[in-house]
Each structure stands twice: as structure tokens, then as C-alpha cells.
Amino acid sequence: DNSADTVATAKPVGPTFDADSAYAFTATQCDFGPRVMNSTAHEKCGKWIVDKFKEYGCEVQEQKADLKAYDGTILKSTNIIAHFNPNAKKRILICAHWDSRPWADNDPDSTNHKKPVMAANDGASGVAVMLELARQLQADKKLTVGVDFVCFDAEDWGVPRWETQYPNADDSWALGAQYYAKNFPTAVKPEFGILLDMVGGEGAQFYREGMSVQFASDVVNRVWEAAKAAGFGSYFPDAIGGMVTDDHVPVNQFAGIPTIDIIPYYPDCQQSSFGPTWHTVNDTMEHIDKNTLQAVGQTVIQVLYSL
Predict the structure, then answer these.
(1) In this model, does residue 168 exceed pLDDT 80?
(2) Handedness of CA 254, 301, 292, 104 (dihedral sign)
(3) What is the pTM for the complete model shown?
């Protein structure tokens, strides 16, 4: 297989992902304010997400739990699970987190470290892509496989950098995904999963993430080939990025679903390898790029319609 030939012949399949719509879904979530755990904005946005998935013909489950944060805070968590083609036996998991980080602890200005993050990219973009996928699938009516869209809660309450009395434990992150994976809420297990994390940033490229390669290299290959076939190979370099502790790790470890992470890697960014807005007060709509949303959304459509 001559990879140069593969790159040259983009063969898109499935409906056209609408980046303007995904952009609007990102903005609507931000309009609620930061969706920080236990806040009114969080509750209102959660209800909106549920209603949207129902509007696009999905059966919605809300998996509620009181989860304990690193410092003992009880987080009122809701994993939102939307089933497209609920009766299909062959199912694929598409997921993202919907909560916002309460502290901009990577901001270059230390006076911002205890301010909440708007989370346009780090949260809202992934949910927005899933909502647009659900909208497209319902309109197209041709996909026979089932899709379980899961919005994980309580992802971003990991130990903040300014916290001195608690170790920066990896398991303080991805609490909603840990709960989902250990208390698996559905009858049929998806064959594989794709996590969307920060899929709307300007200048983003999605390198092959190290944990994904370790857990599910065949799924990584499938998705990166789909990106090329959809015509968005430039956004998905074949090089390996970092190893990321994210929602896909518990899904692999505890639910046994081979799941990969589509997450940006900025090798030359001093601020963070996740890009300049990560965990800062600048994670706002002005740094969301419709072209990035398009590249990721169309790639996922390519995966689903190539099964």
C-alpha cells in the first residue's frame, strides 16, 4: 500500500459536516457561562444538551452520581448518554466531557489562577461536534450502526497547580468517565470508542496520542486513515504526540472498550503542548476555528460511514 497514493485519493463518504452549526453549538454552551460542577450554568447547560440530543432523535439516559473530588468536595455529576439507532447491535462510542475547569491554573497571569475557564475548546467543542453529528445522522437516515454519544461530567476537577496540600494525582481527573466505565450503564458494549477533547482550537493538529496507540492502535489507524480519506489528513499527522491522562483511559481500563483520544498536540507551544489557551481565561469563542471543527467532524463521519 503506497501511502502517497492513499493521501492523493480522498474519497469522502457520508453527509457533509456543518462547521457553522457546530460553532453555534459551541457558542450556546459558552452563553450559559463556565459549566463548573455544582453551578447553575452547569445544570442549565446539561438540560440543554439533553434536549438537543432528544430533538435529534436520540434516546437519552442521564447517569447521575455524587462523586468525591480530590479535596472531599461532593460533585453532583451527570453523564449524558444519547443513543442513536438504540436498537442496533453494532455500536460505536463517541464521547467528550461537558464540564468546565473551575480554575485557570495554567494562565500566564497568576491573578487568574482561581478564575473559572470558559472552556469553549476544552469541553464545549467536543460536545458541539457530537450534537452536530447527531443532527446530521438523523437528517441523513442512512447509518445502520448505533452510536452512543456520551458527555462525561466531572472531567476537569483535577488537582490544581496552586494546591499545595494534595498530590497531583492522575485519578483526580476524569471522575465522570471513571464512574461510567466502572458502572457501565448500557446493555450493549460499543465495539470501539473515539474521545473528542479540544477539537475546535485554532492551529490545532491531532497527533497520534500515546495512550491511544498503547490501548487501541488499530482504532488509531482507522481514524487517521479516515482523516486522509475525508481530505483532512493535514490535521492528523502520523507522528506520535504526548501521553495524555484523559477520559479514554478509564474507558479502556475498566469498561474494556478500545477507545482513542482525538486531542491536539502543539510541539512548539511554550504555554502548553495542548495549545496556548489550555486552562487559561483565554479558552473563549474567539479562539475557536470552524476549520478545525470541520476536520474532526468530517473525520468521524468518515469513520462511521466506512464501517
Answers:
(1) no
(2) negative
(3) 0.96
